[in-house]
Amino acid sequence: MKHFLKLTTAAVVVLGTSISAMAEDITLTISSWAPPTHGINAEMWPGLSAMISEATGGKVKTELKLGLAPPPAQMDLVMDGAADMTIIFHGYQPGRFTGTKLAELPGFDGNAEAASVAYWRVHEKFLAQLDEHKGVKVMGLTTHGPGQIHSNKEITTLADLNGLKTRLGGGVSGDVGAALGLVGIRVPAPKVYETLASGAADAVAMPFESRKGFKLTEVAANVLEMPGGFYRGSFAFLMSQEKFDSLPADIQKALDENVFGEPASRMLGQKWDKVDAIGRAASVEAGNTITMVSDADIAAYKPIAASVTEKVLGELSAKGVDAQAAYDMIKAEMAK
Q1: Which of 202, 218, 267, 323 has a 20 to 30 Å separation from 59 between CA atoms?
Q2: What is the CATH number of domain 91-336?
Q3: 24 or 197, which is more confident?
Q4: Span 276-325, pLDDT tens digits
């Protein structure tokens, strides 16, 4: 009997240790809507996951799941608890986000890394007050690289864009498209390839990374490039606020101090720059045509960019944001 009790006690100790060890391991579920090989899934989520693991001593791991919901439903998916983390493109939900359009404006200097760091800083000072991400925790904010026009027809001037059926992602790209005379078509990014291949659209507004990430080299052999881009696109990497609040206090502290905010935003911007370079290289390898706009078209685009900027700043002002100060800050931060 004593022998049995000793064995039972030992088994309880072992079982207790096992449960304790399991309790220390936390797995966060990621929902992502981009193709498996896209830079978001191949570079950004692994980069963020590595930062999270390092900051928590390996206690927090991630699991990537694809296809849980369409792109516009991702934030609500996380708020409903179907996943712990996700990425959203703000332009997919017109009217839900206004402050985020500030980072999308044309005319900024700097690459995606510079844009993403500047974006986070101006968010903290001016945009967070809008509470547009209510119900979720913003892990990082980022913009893709300069957005260009990719087409299955030859385009060499701004005049060639007038009447061109073009997939626009929303946000500032929609405002720019209207000003350029593009006929806007709205489809999520994962549907771009088939939209162009079927002839439902002649062109798409996207950064260079999409030439590889969404295989535009095959269906849009022409690129019209504007220095600094026609626009940029705004993204947020989000975590369920409820999930974050349920994490142990030391884990929360580690993530807030070492990962979330500017560190994550900087890393994400670096990844955009990396995949932009990959997309450009893929275009060259495929023999695609990349046309830089003329000096005359650069000059012609300036008043268009100024008009779009004025419109967006007016929208921000209507929300109670010191729009001019926010614009001056992000522009100065990006130019550093």
Answers
A1: 267
A2: 3.40.190.170
A3: 197
A4: 999 999 999 999 999 999 999 999 999 999 999 999 999 999 999 999 99
Quickly list H helices, the chain: 2-24, 39, 45-55, 74-79, 112-122, 172-180, 192-197, 210-213, 216-219, 241-246, 249-258, 262-285, 295-318, 323-335
Residue type at 132 in one-letter notation? E
Under 8 Å CB-to-CB from 15, ≥6 apart: which residues? none
pLDDT more than 70, % of the chain:
93
Average pLDDT of the chain, as a whole number: 92
In whole angstroms, give the CA distance from residue 90 to residue 219: 26
Instruction: Please report how the helices 172-180 and 295-318 are oriented relative to each other, as an axis angle in degrees rounded to 10.
Output: 130
Q: What tokens were used for 3? A: 């022998």
What residue type is assigned to position 5 of the chain?
A: L
What pTM did the predictor assign? Answer: 0.91
Domain ranges (residues) in the chain = 91-336
Contact 117, 265 (CB under 8 A): yes
- Closest among 1, 62, 75 to 33, alpha carbons compared: 75
Sheet architecture: strand order including 289-292: 183-185, 165-167, 203-206, 148-151, 222-225, 289-292
Q: Is 35 exposed, middle or buried (0-12, 13-18, 19+ CB in 10 A)?
A: middle
